[in-house]
Design a protein that fits this description.
alpha+beta, Dna Ligase, domain 1, 5 helices, 43% helix
């Protein structure tokens, strides 16, 4: 599904292109306002949902259930490794996870299986910072 190009969506995509971590619609709105944008919060919510539906941005749920968005470099199916402290995100190739998902599905008699795998941990920098505070 192609997403209609608007000035607001262009501003949001440009912002997302410069971010490495997932951000909520509210955080994106705040960053846009800091840049001097007049895009409204409701417009940001609609735009990121449309962009996610169109496959232009990835969406996942944060620890508290909030939808967060990121524009990934890979357009093909992939997964993420996300730091629970700073939000740093690494895109992971799907290869072995795809094989595992198909094997599990087949073992239980399922077909036409879709899945999302997100690994959450603490990155090396955040672990080092936490150790330095102790």
């Amino acid at each position: 599904m192609a997403v209609r190009r608007t000035r607001q969506r262009g501003e949001i995509l440009e912002l997302l292109d410069g971010l490495d971590e997932f951000r909520s619609a509210q955080q994106l709105h705040e960053l846009l306002r800091e840049r001097g944008s007049s895009v409204g919060l409701a417009t940001v919510y609609r735009a990121v949902q449309d962009l996610a539906d169109g496959g232009e941005v990835d969406v996942l749920r944060s620890g508290d259930g909030e939808a967060v968005y990121r524009r990934c470099g890979q357009q093909a199916h992939h997964h993420h490794l996300v730091c629970r402290t700073c939000g740093r995100t690494v895109e992971l190739d799907a290869g072995r996870a795809e094989t595992w998902a198909q094997e599990v599905a087949a073992a239980y008699g399922f077909g036409d299986v879709d899945h999302t795998i997100e690994l959450v941990g603490t990155c090396q920098d955040c672990r080092a910072a936490a150790q330095a505070e102790q």
